[in-house]
Design a protein that fits this description.
Blueprint: E1 3-7, H1 22-41, H2 49-52, E2 54-63, E3 74-83, E4 88-97, E5 103-117, E6 122-123, H3 128-134, E7 160-164, H4 179-201, E8 208-217, E9 228-237, E10 241-250, E11 256-269, E12 274-275, H5 282-286
Antiparallel strand pairs: 1-3, 2-5, 2-8, 3-4, 4-5, 5-6, 7-9, 8-11, 9-10, 10-11, 11-12
Helix pairs in contact: 1-4
Length: about 290
């Protein structure tokens, strides 16, 4: 069984291309996930800890088609694909049902979550009651790719630094930066990287759209007056796409990795609404940023 959530859209969800921004999609997923957690807790005599006490361990988001502003809510189906002792994995599909009976799918994603005791700042195991509540929504993945390996440390050769200032509104009820904000932080750092590279080469960056984003959450990011350090670098340049890896660093000594990301970007033609080859010279400009080890 899948949980269906109808997510209202907002004008502010759109980016410069008139598409829903890649960060906003993750906000949609969070809304659907919270709605499902509330459903799991309905009719239970005890407080449902899953509604209020889980943290995101990993997001894998695949963007399939551009989504523009619609007056009616967008559909989001979510379900559970795997339940482990101290974590569970949810899957999502963001879609619109067409008048002809077909379905346009804009995004598919998975999220690994773990129950968390915020008072003690530690993860915990799932209870039998929580596993039973999720059981009706368990739908094993059609293809088993195995659990994705965590992203490794970023090679900072050619990386660009971005000072990350956490805003008061970025922090959730548990005084942690909300998982959606990490996507925004990596986006800001990515824009800084592309601007820096093209400025040095005397060229303009081609329009791009995000095709895939993987984020590993390693440690909580907290509100503080001093900035965190975000490092980004190009790790692959193809004929119509590029990959950028990122790492947020903090901790007591300023060297602890807090989160890592890998983002696949596709060069985009706004007129044809299709992928395209980058302008002449841009690929050559980006390629030197890729270290031989990559």
């Amino acid at each position: 069984m899948r949980h269906l959530y109808r997510c209202p859209m907002r004008w502010a969800d759109l980016d410069l291309l008139g598409h829903v921004n890649n960060v906003t999609y993750v906000d949609y997923l969070q809304e659907a996930r919270v709605d499902m957690m509330r459903t799991l807790g309905q009719g239970r005599a005890t407080h449902d800890d899953l509604e209020d006490g889980v943290v995101v361990v990993r997001h894998e988001v695949t963007y399939l088609a551009p989504l523009g502003l619609r007056l009616e809510p967008i559909g989001i189906e979510c379900w559970v694909t795997e339940v482990r002792a101290a974590s569970f994995t949810m899957a999502y599909e963001v879609f619109h049902d067409e008048d002809d009976g077909g379905r346009t799918t804009y995004l598919r994603a998975t999220t690994v979550l773990t129950p968390y005791v915020f008072a003690q700042e530690r993860p915990r195991r799932l209870t039998d009651a929580e596993k039973a509540a999720m059981a009706p929504y368990v739908e094993p993945a059609a293809t088993s790719r195995g659990r994705a390996a965590r992203l490794g440390p970023l090679d900072r050769a050619g990386a660009v630094h971005y000072p990350l200032h956490v805003r008061f509104s970025d922090v959730d009820l548990y005084r942690h930066v909300n998982n959606v904000k990490y996507f925004e932080y990596f986006q800001e750092a990515r824009v800084r990287l592309m601007g820096d590279l093209t400025r040095r080469g005397g060229r303009r960056m081609s329009p791009v759209v995000v095709a895939q984003t993987d984020v590993d959450y390693l440690r909580p990011i907290l509100l503080r007056p001093t900035p965190y350090d975000v490092w980004s670098r190009v790790t692959r340049v193809g004929s119509r796409s590029m990959t950028i890896d990122g790492e947020i660093v903090g901790g007591a000594d300023g060297t602890e990795a807090l989160a890592r990301s890998r983002v696949a970007l596709v060069f985009w033609d706004p007129e044809t609404q299709r992928s395209t080859e980058p302008p002449e010279g841009l690929r050559e400009l980006l390629s030197p940023a890729v270290s031989p080890a990559s």
